[in-house]
């Protein structure tokens, strides 16, 4: 059985807008420079798709890899 996909951040593409931490409160937080830290990548599909869609830098993506 495969694991469900997890939401990841492309650190190169991310520009530190912080919207992901607002949309995924409790799962993502911002570090001292305003860049996301993923505390829990297991995000519901609808909630994750919303964050992927609204990320200004298009830095969020789904990954099947651990």
UniProtKB/TrEMBL annotation:
Gene3D superfamilies linked: 3.30.70.20
Any Pfam family hit: Fer4_15
Database matches in SUPFAM superfamilies: 4Fe-4S ferredoxins
Name this polypeptide is given: Ferredoxin
The organism of origin for this protein: Phycicoccus sonneratiae
């Amino acid at each position: 059985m495969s694991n469900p996909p997890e939401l990841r951040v492309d650190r190169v593409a991310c520009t530190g807008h912080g919207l992901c931490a607002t949309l995924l409160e409790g799962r993502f937080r911002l570090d001292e420079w305003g860049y996301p830290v993923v505390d829990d990548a297991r995000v519901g599909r609808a909630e994750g798709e919303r964050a992927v869609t609204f990320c200004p830098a298009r830095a969020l993506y789904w990954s099947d890899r651990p």
